[in-house]
Amino acid sequence: MAGAVLSGMIERGGGTIITVSSLAAVTPNLLGGAAYGAAKAGVRNFMSFLHTTFRGEGIRAITVLPGEADTPILDGRARPPAPEERANMVQPIDVARAVHLAATLPARTVLQEVVVAPTRQRDTSGDLEISRWLGAPDNAKSPSAEEAGA
């Protein structure tokens, strides 16, 4: 997408590209998985490259890094968060408002990275422990459910 719009933006003297990555780009863990964290880190790196390479042409490259957000992807977790946990998470509208803020600032200003995180961080230690042993070889030593916080 960036390749498709970049030359036109440069010809017009500027433009804005906003990509939603994830805080998993900064702090990967078992809840998102290694591949997810690596992909999101790649997105973040690419946007930093665009920013440093084309800012002189008036291009604003912005990465939005949401923390754990209440989206359907959470339903696929080993232990999906309970409704009361989801209520305190980042909501999709919160991410949309951050994108809107970054897009509507004057062209002279760039929010190179925007972190959108929940104010109240939930304890994910039990979830991480469950995920750690999910799919592990049968002979791997797994803690009991009680030890894992389930």
TrEMBL record:
Family recorded in the similarity comment: Belongs to the short-chain dehydrogenases/reductases (SDR) family.
InterPro entries named in the record: NAD(P)-bd_dom_sf (IPR036291), Sc_DH/Rdtase_CS (IPR020904), SDR (IPR050259), SDR_fam (IPR002347)
Segments of this protein annotated with the region Disordered: 121-150
Pfam families per UniProt: adh_short (PF00106)
Protein name: SDR family NAD(P)-dependent oxidoreductase
